[in-house]
């Protein structure tokens, strides 16, 4: 059944934009065999608007839909991907015009490249390495927003004691065991797209957790977690680690004193943000 969003919005200057209530598309990432992020792209059918270009699965939003529902529905219609196969991470308005029309990109992850089933709006659906997306002939709207949507490799340092202490779940009764359980649970959420306070997106494949005191005895057997044992103060070790050059770095803490010791280039994530990763975000 056709939705009530299908149709063109005509601006005062004669410009046309598809979707009476705006439009939305799904930027879906999955890890390759080597951990590199892949992006699902649609090669638009020649008969469609901007046919022959590559873009995201997407389309008009119906009046009763959220942008998230619209993007996921369109991905199901155009690529055969079901809502339960993905986790939504964020959304961002990536185009808007004076008429009130807007396009929202919904960012989501899945744990492996999914099998796709194209409909008549596609000549091909392809999982493309993120590093080569810009090499394709992209839809102009997607091309203009791609630089703000692509990820960079992200290093995350975890103030483990601070994060553990933010939950009153009895962790103090077995600090090593609770630390191991926390790190194991966080590792299971990787790899993933992370939206940073700066507005950048990072691609995270491993967490580096600093352990001090009794937490040093925690057992973590997951390659997605690296444990760094502090000889003394955990804060001192975190501050030293944050000084290292390399990938874009984010540090997870609510400790104001530690935050004041960080280089300006290091971004800060709150414990509640990272603990939120433990709960699936989807429809």
Structural class, by secondary structure, is: alpha/beta
Strand content: 25-35%
Helix content: 10-25%
Distance from N terminus to C terminus (CA atoms, Å) equals 21 Å
| Total strands | 16
The main pleated sheet reads as: 7 strands, mixed
What does this protein look like?
- The chain has 283 residues and is an alpha/beta fold.
- It is built from seven helices and 16 strands.
- The protein has helices at residues 67-79, 140-149, 160-165, 175-187, 234-242, 256-259, 271-275, and strands spanning 8-10, 16-18, 23-31, 37-44, 54-55, 58-60, 87-96, 102-109, 122-129, 151-159, 192-195, 201-204, 207-211, 225-229, 248-252, 267-269.
- The radius of gyration is 21 Å and the shape is elongated.
- It starts with 7 loop residues before the first strand and ends in an 8-residue tail after the last helix.
- The model has no long low-confidence stretch (mean pLDDT 91).
Note the main attributes of this structure.
single chain, 283 residues, alpha/beta, seven-stranded mixed beta sheet, 7 helices
Quick recap of the structure?
With 283 residues, the chain is of the alpha/beta class. Helices cover 21% and strands 31% of the residues.
């Amino acid at each position: 059944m056709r939705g009530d969003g299908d149709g063109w919005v005509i601006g005062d200057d004669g410009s046309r934009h598809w979707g009476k209530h705006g439009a939305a598309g799904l930027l879906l990432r999955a890890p390759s065999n080597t951990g590199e992020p892949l992006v699902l792209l649609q090669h638009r059918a020649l008969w469609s608007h901007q046919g022959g270009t590559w873009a995201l699965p997407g389309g008009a939003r119906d009046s009763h839909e959220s942008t998230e529902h619209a993007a996921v529905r369109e991905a199901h219609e155009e690529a055969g991907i079901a809502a339960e196969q993905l986790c939504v991470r964020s959304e961002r308005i990536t185009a808007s015009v004076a008429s009130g029309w807007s396009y929202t990109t919904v960012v989501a992850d899945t744990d492996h490249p999914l099998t796709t089933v194209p409909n008549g709006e596609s000549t091909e659906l392809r999982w493309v390495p993120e590093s080569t997306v810009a090499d394709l002939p992209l839809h102009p709207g997607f091309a203009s927003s791609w630089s703000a949507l692509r990820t960079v490799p992200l290093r995350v340092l975890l103030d483990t004691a601070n994060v553990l202490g933010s939950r009153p779940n009895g962790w103090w009764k077995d600090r090593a065991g609770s630390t191991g359980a926390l790190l194991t649970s966080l590792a299971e959420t990787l790899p993933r797209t992370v939206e940073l306070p700066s507005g950048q997106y990072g691609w995270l494949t491993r967490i580096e957790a600093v352990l001090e005191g009794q937490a040093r005895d925690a057992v973590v057997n997951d390659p997605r977690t690296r444990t760094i044992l502090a000889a003394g103060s955990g804060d001192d070790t975190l501050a030293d680690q944050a000084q290292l050059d390399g990938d874009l770095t984010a540090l997870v803490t609510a400790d104001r004193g530690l935050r004041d010791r960080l280089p300006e280039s290091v971004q800060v994530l709150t414990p509640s943000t990272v603990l939120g990763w433990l709960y699936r975000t989807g429809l």
